[in-house]
Amino acid sequence: MKFTKMHGLGNSYVYVNMFNENLPEKQLSETAVRLADKNKGIGSDGMILIYPSQTAAVKMRVFNNDGSEAKNCGNGLRCVAKYSYEHGLVTTTSFTIETLGGNVEATVSVDHENCVQSVTVNMGQPRLLAKEIPMKNEHSEAMIVNEVIPVYHQDIRVTAVSMGNPHAVQFIDSIEKAPVKEIGPLIEKHDRFPEWVNVEWVEVVSPKEIHFRVWERGSGITQACGTGACAAVVAGVLNGHLEKESEVTVHLLGGDLQITWKDDGDVWMKGPAEYICSGDVCL
Ligand SMILES: N[C@H](CCC[C@H](N)C(=O)O)C(=O)O
Known about the structure:
This protein is an alpha+beta fold. Helix content is 16%, strand content 41%. 2,6-diaminopimelic acid binds at residues 11, 62, 64, 70, 73-76, 165, 198, 216-219, 222, 225-228. It catalyses: (2S,6S)-2,6-diaminopimelate = meso-2,6-diaminopimelate.
């Protein structure tokens, strides 16, 4: 099977062009685990499949390195946009990508050699009601902003945001002190989150700049999380640290994203997408 490995700020996936390949549905989860394994496979944070779509130019499906399927992936969207444009799956620089979390609009920026250097994605509206995250709550129509949840012997304050996939965002004084590997897995599988959750820590530098770390649902610590960065900016506005319409620089381990939550409700993400390698893999 032919594959292409790409990354967005170090958040790497093995991409399979399902216009040309045919992985059986029942083998997708185990294939993701196998391809993501750094010893027995190619090594990545997961697997992303690019399909034809009935409602958009292309369709993206995302599998974490534990084989679970995610409904969205911001870094993946930018790489899918780059791949689709450079491999002729689309013929325009702006096009729609279907995800299980909803359709989004991507625009690629190309250089003089028609290579994609960066991608801007309208990620759509964040979902903020407890039932939309999903998160168990006494009032399912309530928003979860800076709410205490008991984790081990600590009271952790989280703001819950869905970008098609669920995120629990915390604010911390120093990002260097974020207990990502200690607390991340405890919140990821917390019983308040019936579909589990991506876990983020944010240090606010200014109304236009934050530091960010993530423990991803189904993948653990990654270098970057695009949907998580969007969720972090939304949570920052909800908690009064950031403002709508302001382009926020999000410093992730793997590099920076520019995120804006606009007055019309849509969240915009701009950042790089890069090839690593391509080839054939034996399954
Ligand atoms: N790394 C991805 C997020 C994958 C989300 C996945 N971990 C889940 O929601 O289960 C991103 O750039 O948005």
